[in-house]
């Protein structure tokens, strides 16, 4: 049985750890509130913009075409993977890493050359260990997320795709469903899917909306597609940030609960050890009195 001093040291250590995990949970909760508000306000805007573009495409005469919708034999692909810059968020990063490696293996098996574009320190470190080379880990996009910065990255991917330097772009990130659930999502960023069979935009009464377009629907679509793609990447980054903070809240809550349970066990052990020591001293006193 451990001595009273050893048990006391463990109790103090666990108490200090519990204070840290509890504080980190509060910080993560505050960040989650802001990130959740950002993604919940952005997601409907992106979805409505997608619907408007689909509506225009469905009404275009003849075959709908765009340089960003060209489907080619995939000789070179880019995998954009979004993780976090720090740890202590449960399986958040490991799930993204696992999904990214699966996408890379699938592309390699199809004969494509794969380039990795990481967003986040954790995924960048893993990809370096897998011998992938890249110019930056783009960690600043997570520290200070701004649409203009993400749009620069999206514009570069669209430019390379249009110039046939790359043939496919895939995004891998964690989708924020709710505080307790994050879903690893894999989406094709390029080529863009022009769904000409859907896209009817309705108002709140269920009536189909119509628009007066100037100059033409074709020109509007050509302008909308880059906008939609930039927003898609920006929304993925915001989604991943909300999922990261929610995963950290859950992880820190679990750690705090485990610390409470361990403190209860250690306190019980400390009391038993102290009682055993007191009993032993009393026995020694009683035994000495009979001598």
Task: Explain the layout of strands and helices.
Blueprint lengths: L3 H56 L16 E7 L9 H18 L3 E7 L1 H9 L10 H4 L3 H16 L5 E11 L2 E10 L26 H73 L2
Parallel strand pairs: 1-2, 1-3
Antiparallel strand pairs: 3-4
Quick recap of the structure?
With 291 residues, the protein is an alpha/beta fold. It is 60% helix and 12% strand. The protein contains 6 helices and 4 strands.
Largest sheet: 4 strands, mixed
| Helix percentage | 55-70%
The fraction of residues in strands falls at: 5-15%
Task: Quickly count the helices.
Answer: 6
Task: State mean pLDDT (0 to 100 scale).
Answer: 87
Characterize the overall form. elongated
**What is the CA-based Rg, rounded?**
28 Å
Order of helices and strands: HEHEHHHEEH
What does this structure look like?
Helix 1 (4-59) runs antiparallel to helix 6 (217-289) and helix 5 (147-162) packs across helix 6. The chain has six helices and four strands; from the N terminus they run αβαβαααββα. The chain is α/β, with parallel strands linked by helices. The longest helix has 73 residues, at 217-289. The protein is elongated and about 110 Å long.
Using brief descriptors, characterize the structure shown.
single chain; alpha/beta; 12% strand; four-stranded mixed β-sheet; 291 residues
